[in-house]
Specification:
Elements (H helix, E strand, L loop, with lengths): L1 E5 L3 H11 L4 E5 L3 H20 L5 H9 L1 E3 L11 E4 L5 H11 L8 E4 L6 H5 L8 E6 L8 E6 L5 H13 L3 E4 L8 H4 L1 H12 L4 H10 L6 H8 L1 H14 L10 H9 L21 H22 L4 H12 L5 H8 L1 H14 L16
Parallel strand pairs: 1-2, 1-4, 2-3, 4-5, 5-6, 7-8
Antiparallel strand pairs: 6-7
Length: 367
């Protein structure tokens, strides 16, 4: 298959690598000449550790690189059967890219957006063939992360879905269908992991002990170590975007501690200063901390499930693979039982300050 990629930053180049590595001809471009000029060298450098470890032969690396053609114009992508955009996360920019590209492609070609937060329906709006548009959300780094969210909008046709699912699964990815709603699956259902950690911090618990409690519960990283890894600025932007899209519902409350961290420039690993500057042993109430955070994870997933367009199994798969969680929220629910989660949410709602009232309102499955 001929695959086009627009955007040669880390994500776009990673997506190009994913498909070139399994034999597809990839044509890629970027608005910045420097990104185009350096793309092949950057990809070669990214592959170098695999060659050094003997995982990838020199000949196989050369073959992979030969399947990437960097072109200078969007018009040069016209032979592609599938084009994936990985440009800046702004609706107007993505709409403009697809508006230019669509008339150049075959009527059967598919346009895929790698957006992590924007409405796929809005991106498709105004195009002549919106039925050939869908979301294909890779996680960073794309060559490593197994999960890809496949997001149809209301008008996406089944043949486009089937083509893209087939080629993406053929590249070794696990594809889950996500609804075209704010945050899709992972970015939405992850919010309580960070948010409830921040709520506990606000109540006087330390970031280190909260993280220790979650590590003791089987999570590879606690919420604050994960914020530090992602970057507090990135986490804040994602939370702000979801809060705005969800009418500032208290489930997506933006806690002052996160804003303060960004204002100070203590963004995590990339600045050398973050929420977690040392380790702590699990506190005596580690199990209660884990229950609180996991109950809110379950509730958010249950609200998403109630809205339709997604399965419990896909939510669990997405959360395990997208965030390396040890278990998905519905697996958590099976462990605790509905009554335990319902009681936990009720207690949290009863004790919530005024600005968080409604945060812990149970999803319909707990009614």
């Amino acid at each position: 298959m001929r695959i086009g990629v627009i955007g040669l930053g880390a994500m776009g180049l990673g997506i190009a690598q994913v498909f070139a590595s399994v034999g597809h001809a990839v044509f890629a471009t970027d608005a910045q000449s420097g990104a185009r000029a350096s793309a092949r060298d950057r990809l070669a450098q990214a592959l170098a550790p695999r060659v050094a470890k003997g995982v990838l032969s020199v000949d196989d690396r050369a073959a992979l690189l030969s399947r990437l053609t960097v072109v200078s114009r969007v018009e040069d992508l016209s032979p592609a059967d599938l084009v994936i955009e990985a440009v800046v996360e702004r609706l107007a920019v993505k709409q403009a890219v697809f508006g230019v590209l669509e008339p150049l492609l075959s009527p059967d070609a598919v346009l895929a957006t790698n957006t992590s937060s924007l409405s796929v329906s809005s991106i498709a709006h105004g195009l002549s063939r919106p039925n050939r548009v869908l979301g294909l959300h890779f996680f960073n780094p794309a060559p490593v992360m197994k999960l890809v969210e496949l997001i149809p909008h209301a008008g996406t046709d089944a043949t486009a879905m089937g083509l893209v699912r087939g080629v993406t699964e053929g590249a070794g990815k696990t594809v889950v269908t996500a609804p075209d709603r704010p945050g899709f699956i992972v970015n939405r259902c992850a919010r309580p992991y960070y948010g409830e950690g921040l709520a506990l911090l606000e109540q006087g618990r330390s970031a280190a002990e909260i993280d220790a409690a979650m590590v003791a519960a089987g999570y590879r990283l606690g919420p604050f170590a994960l914020i530090d890894l992602i970057g507090a600025d990135i986490n804040l932007a994602a939370t702000e975007g979801l809060a705005s899209a969800m009418a500032d519902h208290p489930r997506y409350h933006i806690f002052a501690a996160l804003r303060a961290q960004v204002a100070k420039g203590d963004l995590g690993r990339k600045t050398g200063r973050g929420f977690v500057m040392g380790e702590a042993p699990p506190p005596s109430d580690a199990a209660a901390i884990a229950l609180r955070i996991e109950a809110t994870l379950v509730n958010e997933a249950a609200w998403l499930l109630a809205e339709g367009g997604v399965s419990a199994d896909d939510i669990d798969t997405a959360m395990r693979l997208g965030l390396n969680f040890p278990r998905g929220p519905f697996e958590v629910l099976a462990g605790y039982g509905r009554e335990k989660v319902r009681e936990t949410l009720a207690a949290l709602e009863a004790e919530a300050p005024a600005y968080l009232k409604g945060r812990y309102a149970p999803a319909p499955m707990f009614a």
